[in-house]
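quick one, 292 residues, struct below
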Amino acid sequence: MILNVSGRTDIVAFYTNWFMNRYRDGFVDVRNPFNRKLVSRIYFDDVDLIVFCTKNPKPIIPYLNEINKPILFQVTLTSYKSDIEPGVPDKSEIIECIKEISNIIGKDNVSVRYDPILINNKYTLEYHVKAFDKMCVLLDGYVSKIIVSFVDNYKNVRNNKDTLKLREMSVEDYKIIGSEFSKSASRCGMSVQTCFEENNLCEYGFTRGECVSLEEAYILTGKKFKKWAARGCGCAQMVDIGEYNSCKHLCKYCYANYDEKQVINNVSMHDDESSLLIGYVNSDDVIKIRKD
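---
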């Protein structure tokens, strides 16, 4: 089993203490987002690989040597300010954290997500080209792969349309991003790719690949995994242990946060000692052991 920590919220940034408690206790419970009475129980003995997805990896760095599992890190690093990403720390701090993690687990096990790209009057095409190039230079020698995506029309994006003030991207915009990003990454010995994007930019030098490929998972674990059928993107199948509407970054484009009142409520129900990220297992919950 591949554990995704997490696409639904930033467990590393805000709930590392909880995660490490679960790791030490040997299991974690996950409430089904579509059937709230159903809880999956996952034993870490059944976990083959942990994929940490975060915008702030700093809290978990002191514990990495305690985790006796193969690890992949995907760190989202964008050039937006607090108007778009109000809860994300200064990006220079994140860059130093990426370097530290790379030195611990190796640069081939650390990916950066420049994700998502949105264009408006402040964050222009030229702004992104310069920011991406600077990021590549600062991370030269520490990262092998960069993953790029473009903003989607999620509910939260629509809710924040007056803040985002998005400009629709043109064919020429995609061409410039594809060619300029490819040049910057290549100069610094990195590959750059999209994942599950209609515009994969391969004609401009992007590589074809997945966020976590079947081959990569096999190399790290010696096991063969199925493709992630729920996503249809070609990535290896993963099990997410997060909870929607529980991330305190409050990014204006986020798909996983779409109700800030619910975020506040969920955060108030978090307990580092609970087996669930949010709340507790109830007497009428149905618990099922999940092994894949």
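Strands lie at 2-5, 27-31, 38-43, 49-54, 71-76, 110-117, 145-150, 191-194, 239-240, 286-289.
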